[in-house]
Amino acid sequence: MAQSSDLDLDLVLAAFKKFAVHGDMKATGEELNGKNWNKLCKDCKIIDGKNVTGTDVDIIFSKVKQKTSRVITYEEFQKALQELAPKRFKGQSKEEALESIYKLVEGGGPTNMGVTKVAKKGAVDRLTDTSRYTGSHKERFDDSGRGKGRKGREELVENTGYVGAYKNAGTYESKMKGEK
Fold this sequence. Notes:
One of its GO terms (cellular component) is microtubule. It is a single chain. This protein is an all-alpha fold and 180 residues long. The chain is built from eight helices and two strands. The protein has helices at 9-21, 34-43, 54-64, 74-88, 94-105, 123-127, 135-138, 172-179, and strands spanning 32-33, 71-72. It has a two-stranded antiparallel ribbon with strand order 1-2. Helix 3 (54-64) packs antiparallel against helix 4 and helix 4 crosses helix 5.
């Protein structure tokens, strides 16, 4: 394998390790599983849809890994790239194609396409803006937006022992005194 001076295999190894640990908290970065191999090929633009497809990538992964294994090592990863290079770069020699494929991979890392971003504010500010409250909720805040606490509630519960709309509430004591 011919290596030119501008090709940095340390960057290829770094990319391999980034993808090896992507999405797996227990991963050591020494082995790459099939899912992350596919992600590496997509994110580094090895899969172009014409010369190299997702199926090609899966077949080569199965070809280079050990029979009983579900992951590939860095050496097997290099073999896989050697197999993919002539397919991806058809007009180039084997060495040029391999160099071109290393260029695609080196320094690469997993991209998070389609991942939902965290809303910086917006919803929280809108939900906690007391000036926008209507109806009974509006009555619970003063003009400055501070809550009135219990005073802001129109119907406070009275623990008198009487039902809410009872007309003769508080007359029990006087009735009892009158009977004696």
